[in-house]
Automatic annotation (TrEMBL):
Region annotation (NMPbind) ranges: 76-106
Gene that this polypeptide is encoded by: LOC101898297
NCBIfam families found in the cross-reference section: UMP_CMP_kin_fam
Enzyme class: transferase
Co-factor binding comment: Binds 1 Mg(2+) ion per monomer.
One GO cellular component term noted in the UniProt record for this chain: nucleus
Cofactors named for this entry: Mg(2+)
Protein name, per record: UMP-CMP kinase
Any one Gene Ontology BP term: pyrimidine nucleotide biosynthetic process
Assembly: Monomer.
Record-linked InterPro entries: Adenylat/UMP-CMP_kin (IPR000850), Adenylat_kinase_CS (IPR033690), P-loop_NTPase (IPR027417), UMP_CMP_kinase (IPR006266)
Sites where the protein binds CMP: N138
Organism per entry: Musca domestica
Length: 236
């Protein structure tokens, strides 16, 4: 009787140990799977939307609304360049000032380095890159330095007439924007640069089926209603 009871107890213990081991293994498997998922998430490439349009098209205004609604980080190539220009001790500040004041496009190596540094500092994974790429050299430089590191989504193109853009920029300058290029002389150069260099880039992305065009002439709220549709339809 005692032997039978002992064998029963041993069998029960063995089954308990077996069940416990399986549970532990399953638990470790679950933890490992979760860790792997987190690792994959952490290694996910940042999603990128390029925001393009003429000077005064309202890119900055609409980017601020997209940030609030969809949780993107807004990286303005122009703002990053102006911040670097103003940073004490900057080795490229004078060069940036010369390019901006004369309505020219800053060398791509400088802009890409500033954009990459800003993305690396962020804890988010969705970025609006405003005002870039602005010419073929920008695009080539981006492809060399960044294309393999990011998940490019589309170009958000704010299309606006030249007259509306000029009026907006001049009004912004009169309101104290603090921008050295919000004046008629710089605007003429910026618009010429945009027409000659940036529009072909937009055309390039259109041929790839990667442009979402928005009429930027109406009020900012009307424009954003169209922008919102684009982002919702794109899965954001």
């Amino acid at each position: 009787m005692f032997k039978v009871l002992t064998r029963s107890c041993n069998l029960l213990l063995a089954q308990t140990i077996k069940h416990s081991t399986c549970t532990t293994v399953n638990l470790y498997s679950t933890i490992a799977a979760g860790a792997l998922t987190r690792l994959k998430m952490s290694e996910e490439k940042p999603k990128i939307v390029f925001v393009l349009g003429g000077p005064g098209a309202g890119k900055g205004t609409q980017c601020a609304k997209i940030v609030d609604r969809f949780g993107f980080v807004h990286l303005s190539a122009g703002d990053l360049l102006r911040e670097e220009r103003a940073r004490e001790g900057s080795e490229v500040g004078a060069l940036i000032e010369d390019y901006i004041r004369n309505g020219k496009i800053v060398p791509v190596e400088v802009t890409c380095s500033l954009l990459e540094a800003a993305m690396n500092k962020s804890d988010k994974n969705k970025f609006l890159i405003d005002g870039f790429p602005r010419n073929q050299d920008n695009l080539d430089g981006w492809n060399r330095q960044m294309s393999e590191k990011v998940d490019f989504q589309f170009v958000l193109f704010f299309n606006c007439s030249e007259d509306v853009c000029v009026d907006r920029c001049l009004s912004r300058g009169k309101s104290g924007s603090g921008r050295s290029d919000d004046n008629m002389e710089s605007l003429k150069k910026r618009i010429q640069t945009y027409n000659n260099d940036s529009l072909p880039i937009i055309k390039h992305f259109e041929e790839l089926g990667k442009v979402k065009q928005i009429d930027a002439s109406p009020s900012s709220d009307e424009v954003f209603s169209k922008v919102e549709e684009v982002f919702v339809q794109s899965g954001f």
